[in-house]
Amino acid sequence: MLPHQTDISVVMATFNGERYLRQQLDSILLQTVSPKEIIIVDDGSTDTTLAILKEYATDDRFRLLVNDYNVGYIRSFEKGMLQATCPYIALSDQDDIWLPHKLETLASNIEDHIAVYSDSMLVDKNGMSLNKKMSDLKNQLTYNNCLMYTIGAWAPGHAMLFRKALVDQCKPFPALVTHDFWLGFVASCNGGIFYVNEVLVHYRQHASNAIGANTQQSKKQKPTRAEKILTAQRRMQLLYEKCPEGLTEQKEVLRLLSETYQRSDLKSRWKRMICFFRYRNIFLAYKKKSVLMQILFCVKMFFKIDA
Asked: Keyword annotations for this protein (predicted)?
């Protein structure tokens, strides 16, 4: 059943987004199914972003929240989601362009699912198509097993619609992973996140992306190997702790991986590699890897965890 237009909250986080903000806000206002509220959390912008937002806030659907200091996009999105009053939430980046039927299409497909998401078309800084979709980079698919999130996933927040109940199951949002990864993982522990095979967003790629599609080499400082290993260990522990006890097999797999990620002895390395071999089709489902490359990936897990 298609939710009524008053059932949807749009949540956006902004930070110095003056260049592209108007185009995205206009695309939200032009939706064929209009949201009841548009919650925008500004994270300390120093350009004209706030002035632009105040112009749009004359529409009584807008709720503008301004952080006292910069807290980052994860905390900003979390703040906005917790403030949402509707049973359905759609997240919005400040620099994308939504196709007019995005909310309507996602809402018509959510049915009994806790969350849905769609494909996106990559566009350049001027909004021109790069002739590449998110699904061309990695497999986009329905995540109906939380083990599909073990090493990563490809269900971006900008393309999601989910039930407000999911936020309650996610809070507090950990700083270790992105907010949309956490939403997707928790959704995959509670029935799954359904994939709608249709482009509904023009996903803008430019030098100031908080998170991009990794189509170009990042100029950000790379973490050291020691930092990457520590992050991988903490992340696997996080997934294990969050996985419900009722998912017996998944819980055991994540327990084994969490334990072997903490150790470097040969027995632990062997157990980890064998686990990856056994579940490789699930762990690597989102990656566009041949059978040979899947096998090589599993072998690599004997030697390193910062993959």
From this structure: Transferase
Residue 60: predicted pLDDT: 94
Residue 210 token pair? 């908080």
What DSSP assignment string belongs to 249-267?
HHHHHHHHHHHHHT--SHH
Q: Among residues 156, 197, 202, 209, which one has the least CA distance to residue 27? A: 202
Asked if residue 89 and residue 27 are part of one domain, the reply reads yes
Angle (CA) 132 158 86, round 5°: 150
264, 163: one domain? no
| Structural domains counted in the chain | 2
Q: How many residues does the chain have?
A: 307
Own/partner pairs, 164-168, CB within 8 angstroms, 24+ separation: 164/9, 164/81, 164/84, 164/86, 164/87, 164/88, 164/89, 165/87, 165/114, 166/114, 166/115, 166/190, 167/81, 167/82, 167/84, 167/89
pLDDT for residue 207: 76
Residues 199 and 259 in one domain: no
Give residue 222's pLDDT.
86
The whole model's pTM is what? Answer: 0.93
Q: Which domain holds residue 245?
A: 225-303
Residue with tokens 């994939």: 195
> Which segments of the chain have a pLDDT < 50?
1, 3-4, 215-218
What pLDDT is attached to residue 208?
67
Does 137 share its domain with 286? no
